[in-house]
């Protein structure tokens, strides 16, 4: 599926619009400039992404990410060890050791438009941590193990 994007020319023309307070003239210009009705709808409802300048879709990450992940729980991020508490050993397997812990900040839940356009997090969340052994020697089996952990995380 090809992603439809607004051209730099269109972005320049609408860069100073306030999507939440469009004039009739601005609404008409949007309808004239943007052929894709879904993009117009997204822009009028959510404005533009601060990162890619394309119309927001209402989710917390841009459209390119949406094509690859189903929801915000599938965003992969590096989390420093000190962001976890109550880390407890669970088991050791062929590829690594599993622990349980509380992720103090928690995962992304929504975008806070009113307070500095920042991501909101869920707060204390129970998680499973896996220390992968010999990860410098990547094999197909190792990658399958990583993928299975991502699928478990994103499943609910």
Describe this structure in words.
- This protein is of the alpha+beta class and 156 residues long.
- 31% of the residues lie in helices and 22% in strands.
- The protein has five helices and five strands.
- The chain has helices at 8-14, 24-33, 37-46, 63-68, 140-154; strands at 84-92, 96-103, 108-112, 118-121, 125-132.
- The protein is elongated and about 65 Å long.
- Residues 66-70 have low confidence and may be disordered.
The SSE order reads HHHHEEEEEH
- Biggest sheet: strand arrangement: 1-2-5
Number of helical segments with 4 or more residues: 5
The termini sit apart by: 26 Å
Tell me how many strands there are: 5
For the sheet with most strands, the description reads: 3 strands, antiparallel
Annotated CATH topology of the largest domain? Phosphorylase Kinase, domain 1
Q: What's the CATH architecture name of the largest domain?
A: 2-Layer Sandwich
Fold blueprint:
Blueprint: H1 8-14, H2 24-33, H3 37-46, H4 63-68, E1 84-92, E2 96-103, E3 108-112, E4 118-121, E5 125-132, H5 140-154
Antiparallel strand pairs: 1-2, 2-5, 3-4
In short:
By secondary structure, the protein is an alpha+beta fold.
Key words describing this protein structure:
156 residues, alpha+beta, Phosphorylase Kinase, domain 1, 3-stranded antiparallel sheet, two-stranded antiparallel ribbon
